[in-house]
């Protein structure tokens, strides 16, 4: 067992070191993946990641800033309060694709319009973040999560400032309204988050702050321009579309019904 562990550590070290020696070819592509919501509360907001694909070097990996320890004590409370430690992950695209299609979650891809130098910058930045000493970060529900990190890394690794242009028909919303878009109004998820975060989420979000949600990373990147006024996204594709389900919400056990029944019993 100890020998296997030492072998794994050695292999991991060699692999990480080797990865940082790669110089991407002209065929390399960097894209942003947007994953649709899942069924559980921690999956309800979707996910984003960077895909690095270079057929010449046989590289096809996905980096994401959404890995966490599901078995951490008081997971859901810490998740709702934004107090979890998160890590950057790196997975082969095939494994990534299988996991999310198996969970029946939509996968959208936006290939970025970057120079070869900018692509290398993104790759180097992500590899550096993936080092064991750099992997962890203190997750913040609104300002530092798996979506905002995609925006910030893109901004950091490209030449000049990206121009984030608000999508057409974007309506002003509070953070609470944005959360309810994902978890609904009369659900235990929204009920728990409302209690955990309190009135602070009634502040109106700025256009840029909408990007704490993965779907708005996709929406804003669609309209973003580079410093030379070219579109940031070269092309966009739906890699997998969620299949319809017959699942229906059970209104009998929703927060309003349960709390209403308890109130009636209390006053009887």
Automatic annotation (TrEMBL):
Keywords: Membrane, Signal, Transmembrane, Transmembrane helix
Ranges where the Lnb N-terminal periplasmic domain occurs: 26-178
Record field: transmembrane: 247-267
InterPro entries: Lnb_N
Domain of life of the source: Bacteria
Signal peptide interval: 1-19
The protein's name: Lnb N-terminal periplasmic domain-containing protein
């Amino acid at each position: 067992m100890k020998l296997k562990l030492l072998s794994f550590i050695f292999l991991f070290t060699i692999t990480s070191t080797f990865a940082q020696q790669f110089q991407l070819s002209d065929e390399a592509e960097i894209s942003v993946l947007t994953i649709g919501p899942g069924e559980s509360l921690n999956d309800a907001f979707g996910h984003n990641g960077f895909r690095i694909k270079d057929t010449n070097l046989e590289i096809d990996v996905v980096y994401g800033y959404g890995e966490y320890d599901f078995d951490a004590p008081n997971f859901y409370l810490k998740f709702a309060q934004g107090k979890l430690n998160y890590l950057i992950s790196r997975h082969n695209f095939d494994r990534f694709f299988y996991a999310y299609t198996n969970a029946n979650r939509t996968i959208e891809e936006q290939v970025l319009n970057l120079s070869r130098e900018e692509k290398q910058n993104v790759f180097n930045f992500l590899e550096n973040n993936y080092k064991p000493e750099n992997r962890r970060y203190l997750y913040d529900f609104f300002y530092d999560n798996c979506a905002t990190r995609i925006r910030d890394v893109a901004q950091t690794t490209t030449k000049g400032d990206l121009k984030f242009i608000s999508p057409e028909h974007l309506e002003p919303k509070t953070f609470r309204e944005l959360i309810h878009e994902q978890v609904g109004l009369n659900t235990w998820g929204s009920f728990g988050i409302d209690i955990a975060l309190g009135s602070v989420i009634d502040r109106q979000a700025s256009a840029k702050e909408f990007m704490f949600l993965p779907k708005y990373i996709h929406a804003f990147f669609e309209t973003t321009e580079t410093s030379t006024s070219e579109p940031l996204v070269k092309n966009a594709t739906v890699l997998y579309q969620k299949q319809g389900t017959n699942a229906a919400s059970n209104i009998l056990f929703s927060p309003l019904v349960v709390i209403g029944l308890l109130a009636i019993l209390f006053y009887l």
